[in-house]
Amino acid sequence: MSIPSATADAMLGMLDAAQHADALTPGQIATLIDPRTVQTPALDLIDAELDRLLATPDGRLGISMPPQEGKTTRVVRDFVIRALERNPDTRVVAGAYNQSLANRNGLMIRRAISSVPQLGLAISRDNGSKHEWELEGHRGGVLSVGRGAGVDGRPADMIVIDDPVNRTEADSELARDDCWDWWTESLSARLAPGAPVVVIMTRWHEDDLIGRLVERDTHAGWRIVNIPAQCEDPATDPLGRQAGEYMISARRNRDGTPRTREQWESRKRTVGPRVWNAMYQGHPSPAEGGIFKRDWWKRWTRVPQLTGTFIQSWDLTFKGTDSSDFVVGQVWMRQGADFWLLDQVRGRWSFTETIEQIVDMSRRWPQATAKLIEDKANGPAVIDSLNKKLPGIIPVTPHESKVARANAVTPLCAAGNVHLPANSVASWADDAVEELAGFPNASHDDVVDALTQALNCLNGATAAFQRFHIG
Fold it and tell me: Where is the Terminase large subunit gp17-like C-terminal domain (predicted)?
């Protein structure tokens, strides 16, 4: 690969600066290899985490991030070169879900080293296969192995694992067990004292390698960095974004402009809520669901006859417009043994906007005279304000945990007595089902709280319901 002369001075400047520093950053190495590299805030964060990893004895790092945003190249190629540049005697084991991908990754590193002689690294002439090679004059190099491949007798001064399970295998417990055995019985046994490990993957299943490392390998001190495509909580967002803000993508349009918000939204609609939450947000949920199973819900496409008991159920937020939490309002109807979700609104609203939403819902559904509002968060202030405007405000004070309240209504759901709209008649319905399926591990539970509050009250399970005789 030839380097354009327009960038030569900048590259030489980076190399000169590196002589007075510890080494080039992975991002700087990426630019040396390919001057067209797009450095995004997400890749800046990954660079910082990788340098932290190298500086931490026995460091353990897991990174999840949306696909096609540069994480594999940055970690598998640029970080490995960074480690070899720092210490050419570093013996790296690079793993992937099969040998073909492992070979491709090993060849990618090898070609990059050969393309930038300014790094001062060279591949040994007598040891240069795709999957295994050493540096000229040093014992360091790369051994690339697919999942399940043995590494007996091969010491590892660093291990890099790239997507140990692919999409088609993600739901296979056998494949996940095979991956875990590969890590515990083979790879980890080859680690030298102080050796760092990094796992990068797109998450498809909550019981994947990162999930198991967090749950089972607790003594190792794994640091897990999840970079979601869209900010969920400004207080914890790794990129410091505002709620709902999308990441700056490393992918570019043909004219060089970054992916637009509209393009992100289109992608979100195309893949659907389950894939979006797992693949793009890093929050996989069980295929069948957690506490609430996906196949429990009856989905209606035609509005049922509006007769029975109607209520509104509201879950409020602790903050205003800058909150990561959502306000959720729902309208429910009970007919005999069945419960129907008829309407829902959801948004990040200020106190005043929340009042307006409740008033507006009450205009649309005058039948729902009982309005359940949890007597927490903004609840007391909202209740006090609405008592002067609307009849039927019912404060609800929960005395059990969210999980306990959810478990209390699961028999109704499992029996097929709970009816939710189909997405064809309510565009928010599939997102609601996905939040329910992910509970209690999903990033939000506002829909769950409103639903369990409504069902518990309509089923006569709360003092508020019995006191106001609304059923």
Answer: 313-456
